């Protein structure tokens, strides 16, 4: 058997296993910081899946924006909030609710799988195909095709994205500055620490 | 389905698995930050499905759509995390069971 025929499935299954297992760890692990760290691993594995699918552009954006910018922001916020361990205790009602949630998720999973198995093949067969075949991607490169499409056909949404990001930046600044003065929060934290220390004594 | 030949079905099933894991996380976990992370997993699962269909149908629109999804996710994470910080300052907790001021 040709070696290239073996490599692609192996790489796919390795990346898929890393993505699924680390996504499960995000849900299972108790410490939010550990959850965020395993989520970075999930994002890198998904970037590998994008490369296998032949869209390197999205893989680059995935690593840059998701694994880079967003996760740094999340980890920064988790460290900033300084959540104490033991803040999230397991209660009996949580076990019941979790079991219910797992059953609900399984139902959704199995029913979606059923409908996919019924309709996906026919849809892919009869759907209207575009002009960007794998051969064209190989000769022109996925970056060129993506950029051409983004800056001609989808220029208006692209410009609106910049507006959205500007609104988000302004919104964050207003939210953080408008509600409480920084000194208040610091004093509250100190009071909480003081109370905790006196309780321990 | 042949296991050694990777088709679109494999990618779609991976996407479905990740989406279900994210959904279970949102339903099970009570920590607001972990719920936020699980929403990010669900967004990524949808992105995989979009890129898969984009490749399968020889089109480019799915990829462009994923680009916009990533941009919106960046804005959403900035706003959402600052809201979480404000919530923690007000309530001193991120347990969504404890935050019930809006309960009628």
Topology:
The complex is a heterodimer of chains A (201) and B (104).
Chain A: H1 3-28, H2 32-53, H3 56-81, H4 92-126, H5 134-140, H6 142-153, H7 155-179, H8 182-200
Helix pairs in contact in A: 1-2, 2-3
Chain B: H1 8-28, H2 32-56, H3 61-91
Helix pairs in contact in B: 1-2, 2-3
Give a concise summary.
The complex is a heterodimer of chains A (201) and B (104). Chain A has helices at 3-28, 32-53, 56-81, 92-126, 134-140, 142-153, 155-179, 182-200. By secondary structure, chain A is an all-alpha fold.
Describe what you observe in this structure.
The complex is a heterodimer of chains A (201) and B (104). Chain A has 201 residues and is mostly helical. In chain A, 86% of the residues lie in helices and 0% in strands. Chain A is built from 8 helices and no strands. The longest helix of chain A is centred in the middle third of the chain and has 35 residues. Chain A is extended, with a radius of gyration of 24 Å. Chain A starts with a helix and ends with a helix. Chain B has 104 residues and is an all-alpha fold. In chain B, helix 1 runs antiparallel to helix 2 and helix 2 runs antiparallel to helix 3. The longest helix of chain B has 31 residues. The mean pLDDT of chain B is 88. The interface between A and B is large, with 89 and 72 residues.
């Amino acid at each position: 058997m040709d070696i290239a025929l073996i490599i692609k499935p192996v790489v796919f299954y390795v990346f898929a296993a890393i993505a699924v297992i680390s996504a499960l760890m995000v849900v299972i692990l108790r410490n939010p910081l550990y959850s965020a760290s395993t989520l970075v691993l999930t994002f890198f594995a998904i970037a590998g899946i994008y490369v296998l699918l032949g869209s390197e552009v999205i893989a680059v954006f995935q690593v840059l924006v998701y694994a880079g910018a967003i996760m740094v922001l999340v980890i920064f916020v988790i460290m900033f909030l300084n959540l104490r361990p033991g803040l999230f205790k397991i209660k009996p009602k949580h076990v019941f609710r979790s079991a219910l949630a797992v059953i609900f998720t399984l139902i959704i999973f199995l029913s979606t799988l059923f409908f996919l198995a019924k309709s996906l093949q026919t849809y892919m067969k009869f759907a209207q195909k575009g002009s960007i075949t794998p051969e064209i991607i190989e000769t022109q490169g996925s970056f060129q095709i993506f950029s051409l499409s983004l800056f001609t056909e989808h220029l208006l949404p692209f410009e609106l994205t910049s507006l959205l990001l500007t609104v988000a930046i302004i919104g964050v600044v207003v939210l953080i500055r408008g509600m409480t003065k920084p000194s208040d929060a610091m004093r509250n934290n100190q009071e909480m620490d003081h109370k905790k220390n006196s309780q321990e004594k | 389905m042949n296991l050694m030949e990777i088709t679109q079905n494999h990618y779609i099933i991976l996407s479905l698995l990740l989406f279900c894991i994210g959904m279970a996380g949102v339903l099970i976990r009570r920590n607001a930050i972990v719920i936020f992370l699980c929403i990010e997993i669900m967004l990524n699962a949808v992105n995989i499905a979009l890129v898969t269909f984009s490749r399968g149908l020889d089109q480019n629109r799915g990829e462009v759509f994923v680009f916009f999804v990533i941009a919106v996710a960046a804005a959403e994470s900035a706003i959402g995390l600052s809201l979480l910080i404000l919530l923690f300052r007000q309530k001193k907790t991120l347990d969504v069971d404890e935050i019930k001021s809006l309960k009628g």
